[in-house]
Amino acid sequence: MKRLLTIIVFMLTAIVTVNAQGSVTVTQSAEIDALVNGKKAAKKANKERQRVESQHESQKTSAANTSKKQDTKKLTVPKLNDHRPEISRPENIPAQPVRPAGTKLVKRLVKRPHIPTDEEIDGTYLVTKRVKKGNKKVRGFRVQAYSGGNTRIAHQQADAAGQKAKELFPEQPIYVHFYSPRWMCLIGNFTNYNAAKKVMRTLRKNGFPHANIIRTMVTIKTSQFVN
Known about the structure:
Helix content is 42%, strand content 21%. The protein is an alpha+beta fold and 227 residues long. It is rod-shaped. The two termini are 125 Å apart.
């Protein structure tokens, strides 16, 4: 720095001297030119060096990438659906068709044709159906075997008449109830008057001379086929 200042002072002195005496030609040495223009040249040299270095680095990077691409190999992984090992099957069982990938298995109900049996061909075959049984109240007839008062003795006599009627008609229901104002013994649930009349005649022949037929509500059994 001191040297630069010395040179500048020297140049100013020379210029003043020339102005005072006349025209003087000043020649600048290479050292002075280097000192004056050294900073600009240094900056320019630094920029040029950085540009060259960046070009070298980009060339190295591209070469490395090219070598990596050449070294890498494309690996193909087989899909699971592509590999289907064959299973050994017996000769009498046919192999099922292979379902293509991506398809969906759908089950459908197929109506099989009806093959008639030997009994159906002959015209005689057994049909079983469910039957719903029950009871129903309808107007009908009952045979009166005994009718008394509302005393305890009348109750006993009605019970005795019911036991004797049960011995004569074990298949018929016997009703010994108090129908106000008397105890009564009734037999059967008849919807046919002639059937009730036969029972009345049998009772009269077996010690029930006052037996008769009365019209009332009776209970009958019903049956209905259920699909």
